[in-house]
Automatic annotation (TrEMBL):
Organism: Eruca vesicaria subsp. sativa (Garden rocket)
Taxonomic superkingdom: Eukaryota
Family membership noted in the UniProt record: Belongs to the disease resistance NB-LRR family.
GO biological process: defense response
Tagged with keyword Repeat: yes
InterPro entries: AAA+_ATPase, Apaf_helical, LRR_dom_sf, NB-ARC, P-loop_NTPase, Powdery_mildew-R_dom, WH-like_DNA-bd_sf
Keyword tags: ATP-binding, Leucine-rich repeat, Nucleotide-binding, Plant defense, Repeat
High-level lineage: Eukaryota, Viridiplantae, Streptophyta, Embryophyta, Tracheophyta
Name this polypeptide is given: RPW8 domain-containing protein
Gene3D superfamilies for the chain: Helical domain of apoptotic protease-activating factors, P-loop containing nucleotide triphosphate hydrolases, Ribonuclease Inhibitor, Winged helix-like DNA-binding domain superfamily/Winged helix DNA-binding domain
GO molecular function: ATP binding
Pfam families: NB-ARC (PF00931), RPW8 (PF05659)
PANTHER family linked to this entry: PLANT BROAD-SPECTRUM MILDEW RESISTANCE PROTEIN RPW8, RPW8 DOMAIN-CONTAINING PROTEIN
Location of the RPW8 domain: 1-153
Length: 817
């Protein structure tokens, strides 16, 4: 106990919690007999460490009572005593290991609970005191931690990566001089606000990103925040993002005046640590009043704006020019490898003609270069000859625009990829889209039975730099593509929209309708009949759901993008008899309450429904009587406390075709509704990142056709029901990151079709003896799970294959929220 006392940790009141944690982490990592257990405990404490450091820094500023941290300090003390006790037992006899293991597990569980619930609630409360937005807001956040049913505390999700500077995979070509000039202005005390303006595709965002990563800039500014604004600026939403990014609980401002007060208070607090740089990226014309709201007279606070337009009244304007010839050439060579058997003369001539067409625009050079990479000399010549020979002066009425410079890359696509590329214009600018959303749409629009084939389309478009694919976590092989994120440069989205708008509005195959406040586009006001097969409707947070009537007899895919807290589905959906795919995505801060759900009832061809961040009851789905529904996806949805089951509904008749249910990040789902186990046609059941789920219903054994069962990252799931051994068609089981899982069903060996098990971070899960009966089994796990569970079986199970994969924690996922 000498180290404990020497740190001043003899009493909670005088303790620095972070110092106590550092000491225990150091000790916990020493004992090789308990490597998996002690490593897991250390990881939990390391996750806790940043939060405790922040609370330590507040103790003198706030009246942070010792009682609030007593529980945590007692747990840390127990952990310290235990790991010190292990010092003299580095080679613990096998029969004693279980005792120590249980003690370590109990301490780890206590720390995890405090970290996930109590500590974050205290942190929100204390941070909001410092922020001083208002007493009613403090009360609101603190009340979130009050016990709801007398036994459990509701954690508040918080996302700290909302305003981070984007990563740069490689140093951009041709920005050395602009970077030097802009950096000089930014660090000039006389310059407060800067605007980097240039036409689309010149690399404004890339330059701003590179500037934020510059060592001199990072050394000067203590805080750098990066926000994409786009064509529909939302001041309140950006302030909300800034608050959440800095660890404060989410709050919906009633008006912009409240948001202004919140922004000022936040900046005043952050400025105590050092200078602040706020980047507002891609601001559109007419946003002068929007920009003025961020102008707060504070020392050491600067704003950098990127835009296609000048804002002379806002601050210093820096005009970014297209790349000079030498830089443009270097960038093209970087993207397009030289074709074989090309003479220097021919090669230089081709480069010259291509660069003349690209006009120095980095995005054009990149896209064209990738389309030519690895191609033959004849392909290069054919591409060049297809272009006009005139000068390409930007925005000259008689010359190609930047979008027209990109058109050859679109024209070069095979027909099916052209259609897929055009579909990307149906999503919002700068929207981050799960790959599964797009794949579901393509499978039904184009009659593709394989999700793998549709994923190949995305990969093909990404390989030509027409979109970007980001892997959020671990890649899966069974057609589960929730772990892939799709993004697209705004100029490429404009290209897709432009190509889709060549026909009159009502005759277009793809139609986008934007509704701001309650203002509808003129074409929609007289009950028009639209021909579109893909309809996208986006509304803002002021939309009141007062719909006009539109006749959409040919719509097969409907994309609804909303931001309001209450949203009534348009009644004209009931007339979409050809509708196959419905995607509803809410970009507001809280789940939107959906009404008029019954308009979906009995649609004869509706096969896929995806709901994201909405509030529904799961019984609503059954009552729709959708006889053709094949897939139901629920992401970040709220279901409320009322949980009715379907005693009076024959589920097998109400949902006779349902084959896949995907439930992801649904925080308040604590049990699976009984009717799910009555969907006898179900082949895939995925329940992921649902932390309140602790048990699955025993009736899950009734799903005789189930082939894939995924319950990954459900950290409180303690066991799988024994009835799982009745899933005779199960071929893939994913229990990865189910940290609380303690055992598999005793008779799991009966599942003779089970060929794959994914179980990263499941080394505490007991394997029954019957697992040896599984033939040709393939297991994916990390080192600890392999050593603890499977190493001893590898010699006895001759057909067992264990793939060791290190778990990666990819923070790209935070960009989804």
């Amino acid at each position: 106990m000498n180290d404990w006392v020497s740190l001043g940790l003899g009493s909670v009141g005088g303790a620095l919690v972070s110092e106590a944690l550092k000491l225990v982490i150091k000790e916990a990592k020493k004992y090789k007999s308990f490597k998996p257990l002690s490593k897991d405990l250390a990881e939990t404490m390391e996750r806790l460490l940043p939060l405790t450091k922040e609370i330590d820094s507040m103790q003198n500023e706030l009246d942070l009572g010792a009682g609030e941290l007593k529980q945590l300090m007692e747990t840390i003390r127990k952990a310290y005593e235990l790991v010190r006790e292990l010092k003299d037992h580095d080679e613990v006899p096998f029969y004693e290991k279980s005792t120590y293991a249980r003690e370590i597990e109990d301490i780890n569980k206590e720390m995890t609970k405090f970290c996930d619930i109590n500590l974050q609630v205290l942190q929100y409360r204390n941070q909001l005191k410092l922020l001083n937005i208002g007493g009613h807001l403090v009360d609101m956040v603190y009340d979130i931690g009050v016990k709801i049913d007398g036994s459990s505390v509701a954690p508040v999700p918080v996302f700290r990566d909302l305003c981070s500077v984007p990563k740069l995979n490689k140093a951009p070509v041709g920005f050395a001089w602009p970077l030097m000039e802009l950096k000089k202005k930014l660090l000039d005390d006389a310059v407060v606000n800067l605007v980097v303006s240039a036409p689309p595709g010149c690399g404004k965002t890339t330059l701003a990103t590179q500037l934020c990563h510059d060592a001199g800039v990072k050394g000067h500014f203590k805080h750098i925040f990066f926000n994409v604004v786009s064509s529909s600026p939302n001041f309140k939403a950006i302030v909300q993002n800034l608050l959440q990014h800095n660890g404060y609980a989410p709050h919906t401002f009633e008006n912009e005046s409240q948001a202004t007060v919140g922004l000022r208070n936040l900046l005043e607090k952050l400025r105590e640590d050092g200078p602040i740089l706020l980047v507002l990226d891609d601001v559109w014309r007419g946003a002068e009043l929007f920009l003025q709201k961020f102008r707060i007279d504070l020392p050491d606070y600067k704003i950098l704006v990127t835009s296609r337009f000048d804002f002379p009244s806002f601050g210093f304007n820096y005009h970014l020019k297209p790349l000079e010839d030498q830089d443009a050439r270097a960038l093209l060579i970087q993207w397009a490898s030289r074709p074989d058997k090309t003479s220097d003369k021919d090669y230089e001539l081709l480069l010259k003609k291509i660069l003349k067409r690209c006009n120095g625009f980095p995005i054009v050079i990149e896209v064209v270069g990738v389309s030519l990479k690895g191609q033959t000399l004849n392909t290069w010549k054919g591409q060049v000859e297809s272009w006009s020979q005139g000068e390409t002066i930007l925005d000259s009425p008689s010359q190609p625009t930047v979008l027209e410079c990109l058109e050859p890359s679109f024209d070069a696509l095979v027909p099916n990829l052209k259609e897929c590329f055009l579909d990307m214009g149906s999503f919002l600018e700068d929207q981050k889209i799960r790959a599964s959303v797009i794949i579901d749409m393509w499978m039904e629009l184009y009659g593709k039975s394989s999700s793998i084939l549709c994923m190949t389309y995305l990969e093909d478009l990404a390989s030509q730099n027409l979109l970007k694919l980001v892997l959020l976590g671990s890649e899966t092989e069974d057609g589960f593509y929730n772990e892939f994120l799709v993004t697209q440069h705004d100029i490429l989205r404009e290209l897709a929209i432009r190509q889709s708008e060549l026909e009159p509005i009502l005759e277009r195959k793809r139609l986008n309708m934007e509704i701001r406040d309650d203002t509808f586009p003129d074409w929609s006001l007289n009950g028009p009949v639209v021909n579109a097969s893909l309809l996208s409707i986006s509304t803002d947070d002021l939309f009141s759901s007062n719909w006009v009537e539109i006749d959409c007899p040919n719509v097969e895919a409907l994309v609804l993008i909303l931001s309001s807290s209450d949203y009534a589905l348009p009644s004209f959906i009931a007339g979409m008899r050809k509708l196959k795919v419905l995607t509803i995505t809410n970009h507001g801060f809280y789940p939107a309450r959906l009404t008029n759900f019954s308009c979906l009832s009995s649609l004869p061809n509706l096969k896929r429904i995806r709901l994201e961040k909405v509030s529904v009851t799961l019984l609503d789905i059954v009552q729709l009587q959708l006889v053709s529904l094949k897939k139901l996806s629920l992401v970040m949805c709220s279901f409320g406390d009322v949980f009715y089951d379907s005693e009076d509904i024959d589920v097998s008749k109400a949902l006779p075709s349902l084959q896949e249910i995907d439930i992801d990040y649904c925080y308040d789902l604590d049990e699976l509704p009984y009717w799910v186990c009555e969907v006898v046609s179900l082949k895939t059941l995925s329940i992921t990142n649902c932390n309140k789920i602790s048990l699955l219903p025993k009736a899950i054994g009734n799903l005789s056709k189930l082939e894939v069962l995924r319950v990954s990252s459900c950290i409180n799931l303690s066991e799988l029901p024994e009835t799982v051994d009745r899933l005779s068609n199960l071929r893939f089981l994913d229990i990865s990151h189910c940290l609380g899982l303690r055992k598999l069903p005793l008779e799991i060996g009966k599942l003779q079709k089970l060929k794959k098990i994914s179980m990263r971070k499941c080394w505490r899960c007991e394997l029954p003896d019957s697992v040896r009966d599984l033939e040709d089994l393939e297991v994916k796990c990390e080192e600890e799970t392999r050593l603890v569970l499977w190493e001893r079986l590898m010699k006895k199970m001759t057909n067992l294959t264990v793939h060791e994969e290190e778990t990666e924690h990819n923070l790209n996922l935070l960009q989804m929220f």
